[in-house]
Amino acid sequence: MIGGGTAPEEAAALVGTYIAARPLAEAHILAADILGVVWVGSLDATEQTMKPKEPVDDF
Q1: Is the torsion defined by CA of 56, 46, 1, 37 positive or negative?
Q2: Is 58 inside a domain boundary?
């Protein structure tokens, strides 16, 4: 969240509210979903298929 534009204090408050205060299994599911989108791409809701991320040419 911090690298995405959220202030460190706000990110800490959100983590304290929605992650630290909840069972670890809930956070694990959310983290796995987020990492899946980062690594593979997002699910296209209209076609119900995986939409791959566009390659980034940053060399």
Answers
A1: negative
A2: no
pTM as predicted: 0.41
The label of the residue with tokens 């119900």 reads: 48
Give the total number of structural domains in the chain. 1
> What is the Cβ-side half-sphere exposure of residue 50, based on CA atoms within 13 angstroms?
9
Q: Write out pLDDT tens, residues 1-49.
A: 666 788 899 989 988 888 888 788 877 888 888 888 888 877 665 555 5
Residue 12 included in any domain = yes
Give the structural domain span for 8.
2-52
